[in-house]
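Support case: N-(3-carboxypropanoyl)-L-norvaline complex. Customer-provided input:
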Amino acid sequence: MTNFLSLADVTDLDALIQSGLDAKANPFASQHLGKNKTIGLIFFNSSLRTRLSTQKAAQNLGMNVMIMNVGQDSWGLEMEEGVLMNGDKAEHIREAAAVIGRYCNIIGIRAFAELQDRDKDYREQVMHQFAKYARVPIVNLESATRHPLQSLADCITIEEVRRADVSLPKRPKVVLTWLPHFKPLPQAVGNSFSEWMNARAQAGQIEFVITHPEGYELATEFAGTAPVIYNQQEAFDGADFIYGKNWSSYTQYGQVLTQDPSWAVTMEHMNRTNNGKFMHCLPVRRNLKVSDAVLDSPQSLVIEQAANREWSAQAVLKEILTSL
Ligand code: SN0
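Agent response - structure generated as follows:
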C-alpha cells in the first residue's frame, strides 16, 4: 500500500481487518517496522480520536510522530495553482508539502469539506495536492468526501461482534441512518461507511440498507446499489447494527433541509431492531442525535468503535511501512 486515501487503496479487506484484530491482540509485535521512521499528522480541522489513535498506533509501531495544526501553528496554505498570492495564505502547497515530505516518511492529513462548492470538495484537492508534491505516502485522516480509517475501524468492530455473538445471522443487517443536526456537516463519514459496507455486502458478509429523509441522498458513487428506505422505522426492522450519522444534503449541497427530531435514535427506535447494536463515529451530541439511554445502554458500541481506531490506524500504517 502506498497511499491510503480510500477503499480503492485496499487490496485485501479481510486481511486488513484481521491485521487490525491482530494488532489489538498484540500491539507491539511490529515495533521494529517503524524504528527511525517519522509520521507527520497535519490537521486543517479539529480532532480527538483521529489525532490520538493515529499517534498511538504509530508509536506502537516504533515510529516518531510530529503533529501540526495548519493555520494555527503554521502558515495558511494556498492550494490553487498559478494564483497571485496576495490574500491571507502565506505559503503554497507546492513548498509546504515538499518540505513536510522531506521530514516525514508518511504524512496523515485531515481536511474537511468546506460545503460551499460541491465540485471543489469532491475533487479532493487537498489530498491530491499533498500526494502530488510530498512524494511520500499519504494517509487520509478524513478528507472532504471520505473517512476511511473510521470505516476500517467500523469493519473491525462489526467483525468482532460477529465473531463473539453466535446468535447473529450469517449476514447481519447493517443500517446506516441519517440523524438530525442544526449544523451542516460533511457527507464524508456516511459516504465512506456506505462505500465500505457495499463492499462487505458484495462479499456476502452483511446486508446493507440506508435510511434518510428525502433530499439527503448520498452521491451514487458512494450509495452504490444499497436499498434506500425513506421510512426509518421500516428500515430498522430486524436490524443487527444501526449506524447513525448526520450529513448535510449532497443534492442541495451543504444545506440543512430538515431537523426533524423524530429521526434521533431513542430506545423506542432500537426496540424495532433485532436487539441491534448502536454505532456512531463520535463526536455525538447527546439527545440531539441519539438519546442518553441508547448511548449508555449495553447495545452501544461507540466506545469500542473509538478504541478500534487505534487498530485500524495500526493496520494501515503497518502495511505502508512494509512497502517503504
Ligand atoms: C465531523 C463530520 O465529518 O461530521 C467529524 C466526524 C468524525 N463532525 C463534526 O464536525 C461534528 C461537529 C458538531 O458540531 O457536532
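Residues 178 and 245 are 5 Å apart (CA to CA).

Case will auto-close in a few days if no follow-up is received.
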